Structures are given as structure tokens and as C-alpha cells.
TrEMBL record:
Residues 158-271 form the Sulfide dehydrogenase [flavocytochrome c] flavoprotein chain central domain. Residues 348-414 form the Flavocytochrome c sulphide dehydrogenase flavin-binding domain. It comes from Rubrivivax albus. This is Pyridine nucleotide-disulfide oxidoreductase. Coiled coil: none annotated.
Amino acid sequence: MHRRQLLRATGGALLAASLGVGRAATATANGRVVVVGGGMAGNTLARYLKLWGRRRVDVTLVDRAPTYVSNIMSSLVLTGQRSLSSLTYSRSALAALGVNLVVDEVVAVDAAAPSVTLAGGGTLQADRVVLAPGIAFEPPPGYDDNRMPHAWQAGPQTTLLAQHLAALPASGTVVLTIPPTPYRCPPGPYERACLLADWLRANKPGARLLVLDANPDIIVEQDNFSAAFYGLHADVLEYRPGVSIDSVDAAGMTLHTNQGQVTADVVNLIPRQRAGRIVTDAGLATANGGRFAPVDVLSYASTAAPAVHVIGDSSATTQPKAGHIGNQEAKVCADALLRAFGGTAPDPAPVTNSACFSTITMTQASWLTAVFQYDAATRAMAAVPASSAASNGWSRGNFEDMDTWFRALMSDSFG
Ligand SMILES: Cc1cc2nc3c(=O)[nH]c(=O)nc-3n(C[C@H](O)[C@H](O)[C@H](O)COP(=O)(O)OP(=O)(O)OC[C@H]3O[C@@H](n4cnc5c(N)ncnc54)[C@H](O)[C@@H]3O)c2cc1C
């Protein structure tokens, strides 16, 4: 697929999802929804519930932070090409649509009621609760995120890792670790490795980047990342697959792995991941070894608690944990909720899509796109092979398209 076609396909899918509005809006909706988490998935859900349901649905969104900082593009903060403020989004468009905004931490979920309890006191009751809290980390013993920042949740951690990199001594060593799947943004660590290799070459002559991957091989976009790791960046970057982190000595900047001990000047340790804590505490994370929440992908209702829905990275589906997919899951869920309030069944054949751009250098990117369609036999979203494609190599044009795609996605999610 040509990159222009990709952009058209991406925009088309966003538009097609919006066109579901007509069908959803004609239902007689009369329900109360509490959304926990106003990130890529939760913010999109609240926005589309109101765009499609208007006054017939009462929506309250709770997030611990008043604004959202995008993880997408945040690796460019490490190389000084982006600022965190350029990645910060307000929820004022939600307020304008009539969403009740609560800035607080949800500390408990009663899946049967359903209701949520706030750290600041009080309980919010609803007809349906939607959980979109993203991920929690499962760090190895000895981990200290001040010494070995993960920077896998954009914000202070990103700033800290950027400072560590800036202070890297001449001919120093950087280690980046990749957790076992499933984790947030499958290509993310590989694209960060490429970006850092390019930045080190230009800014820290003689420095080396060691990439320790807990997975047996590169898990996504193998052609492009292999060409980058073993060709383009081989003078700076060494890739070691099958390396898991058993424990760390944070003070000594040392990692104890299944293949021996590694010491470095800067460590970007991306820990193993699981659903946000409230999902686990509510007993809903029973898939992937008790890490993520199984859902019915026609509505994203938890398989354990039908009045509670789980969208975004916390859910266990066959789709990647990605912001673009969180946006798509939110629209399927919003449509299903409005139909349920109107007394009708969810769309029996939902389709989602995801586009992904990966930085291969500081100015060039590759891309990958996938479409998923509901498969009634497996009750899962199945990748549609004919609709999936990847770029053959990388280019400056793709890097520019990445910015267009990002702006479209964020504007669709945050208004
Ligand atoms: C470096 C990096 C690059 C990435 N690049 C891409 C990319 O190119 N394309 C792509 O599609 N995806 C990318 N991703 C992945 C994407 O960022 C995530 O998949 C997406 O953010 C998941 O959305 P979410 O809504 O599930 O979680 P989030 O976006 O993390 O939102 C969760 C929200 O819940 C709130 N919250 C959590 N718990 C509570 C609580 N108890 N009470 C109140 N509020 C709570 C948080 O404050 C947060 O606002 C990238 C990720 C990283 C780290």
C-alpha cells in the first residue's frame, strides 16, 4: 500500500467509525456511564458517547490528572525533537459536550453495583462503568525508577531519562530492555532503540546501545527493524534476544539477567506490564497469566462482570495494545452502550484498524497498518490479511505522514 493510500485508509476508518453515529444516535438511550481513565481509550469513549448519544446519556469521566500527556511521540522528547508540553492535551472539549469531569483517583470498583470509589471520598454509581486505566508495571526486584527510568508512561519519567541521556559520558553505554509480550505498543521499544542509536551517533561519539529483548526475536515489523539493527545502526547498536531481567542492583547500575550480568551508564528499563491496578483489584484481570482483562469484543463488557467494560491497554484482546486501537475499541464500546440503553444488541460484526509509524532515524520512519474484523467462530477480532501492510524500508516522507496521522488521531480522541 502506498503511504498516501495508508493515510486515506486511516482517515477513512476514523470517518467510517464516526458514521456509526447515525445508527447509534437513533436508539433511545437513557443511561448513566462512569468512565475511569481519560487517556486514548477513555477520552475517546466519553467524547463519542456524547457526540452520538447527546442528552440521552449521562457521562462522568474520572482521571487522576487534569490533562493528558501522550505516550505516542514521547520517545522524540528523549532526542530533543518534541517537548512534553506539545504532547499535553486538555479535556475541555469533553466539558463542552456536557461530560462531567472529576479529577480524582479511583481506588476501588464494585463490579456488581456497578460503582467506583474515589480517593477524595464518595462513590459514583452508574448503569455501566467503563475502565480505561492503561497499564501498571511489574518491575524486577531491586528496581528504582529514578535510577533506571522506564519512560513508558509519558511525563516525569520521560524528562528523567532525557536528563540521564544528556549526562551520558563520552564512549558510555546505554541499555534498553524490552519486556515479554503482551506489552504497550509492540513496535515502541524497537523504534526507541533506532531513534536512540541515531541520536547517540550524532551526539555521543563512541557511545554504545545494548538492547536486551526478553522475547525470542523482534516481535513486529521484523524486516525493517532487522535491517536497521543489523545494518544501518550496527556500528552503535547491539541487539540480544531472549534476555530476561531477573533482578537489578539500581545503585550499581547493574542488571542480573538469565544470560549474565550487565552494567551500564544509562539504563532504560521497560518493565513487564499488566492491567491498571483497579482492574486487577476488581478481580477482572484473569487472562495472560492474570495480567489483563478478558472482554466480549462486541461490547468490551468484562467476561466476569457484564455491567463493567474494559477498553484500551487493560483489556486482553487479539489486537495490539496501541493508542490507535484504544480509540477504535472506545467507539465500538460507545456504540454498544448506546444500543444497550436503547434495548438493542451490539453491532454483530465490528471492524477496527490500526496504523503505526516507527522512527528508524531522527528524520525517517517506516509504517505498518492492520485491520481487524470480528470472527464469530472464535469470538475474537481477527486480522484481515489482505488489508494489512507494511512499508518497504523507511523514508522522510513517512516521517512527515507520521505527524499528520498523529494530529488526526489526537484530534479525533480529544476534540
Ligand atoms: C513510547 C511510546 C510510544 C507509543 N507510540 C504509539 C504509537 O505510535 N501508536 C499507537 O497507537 N500507540 C502508541 N503507544 C501506545 C499508547 O500510548 C497506548 O496504547 C495508549 O495510551 C493506551 O491507551 P489507554 O487509554 O488504555 O491508557 P492511557 O492512554 O495510559 O490512559 C490511562 C488514563 O487512566 C488514568 N488512570 C489510571 N488509573 C486511574 C485511576 N485509578 N483513577 C483515575 N485515573 C486513572 C491515567 O491518568 C491516564 O490518563 C506508545 C506508547 C509508548 C509508551
